[in-house]
Structures are given as structure tokens and as C-alpha cells.
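Please, structure for the following, as C-alpha cells.
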Amino acid sequence: MASTALVTLVNPGLTLLDQAINAAKSTMKTATAMKNLFESILEDLDNEVFEDIVSSESVKVERIVSKGHRSPASGWYDQERHEWVVVLKGKAVLAFEYEEDLVLRPGDHVDIPAHKKHRVKWTDPNQETIWLAVHYR
């Protein structure tokens, strides 16, 4: 009975259950402000832009913005994690060691296994190419 009286004194308009729910909500991680993948793009893209959307030990999601960028011709990406990529806007060409090039347009996606040697051979120099990349184990 004493605990009920204490709860009533804290907020007499809410039941014990409602107060417990509110307390739990106040300790939960809150969502950050909504963002749009097609906004906040720099006018001058001298360098390719990599922006983490979400990241944990097992997965990382990033937005990549390219405009005429490509990987150095002298090397290949050889990543520890698998990578799924989708082109949301623009065009790109991915090159794979010992395989044919892939031309990617909006909506095209590919899953690249870990240690599959690849590189970006070309991105459209006349418009932004916006990628969404998911790196996972």
C-alpha cells in the first residue's frame, strides 16, 4: 500500500503500469532526426563522400556519393566483410578480378562476397551516383 501511495504522489493521473512504461521509454534510445539519402549532397564533389548511416560490430550501412570517381587503377578492394551495394541514382561500372564488368543503373544491386577482388571502374561524371552499401559478416 505504501508503494501505491508513493506512485500516486509522483503522478496521481497515471496508473503504476503507465508510470513504469513511461520510465522505460525515457531510458530507451531515441531516434535521431529523419534524413533523406538524396539530400545534403555537396555541390563540389572533389572527393567521393562516404557517410555511415548505421554501424555495429556485425553490419555497417553507408551512403556513398560519387561523381566521376573511380578506384585507383593499381589495386583492388579485398574486404574482410561481404558487401551488398545498390545504385539509387546515377550510373557506375564495377570491375571484378577475372570476371566481366558490371554496369549498374538505379535499382541495380550486387552482393560481393568477402575477399572478392573488385573496384569501381567508372561513375557518371555528369551527375551524382548515390550508392547504398551494406557491409556485413
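The first strand starts at residue 49 and ends at 55. Confidence is low (pLDDT under 50) at residues 1-9.
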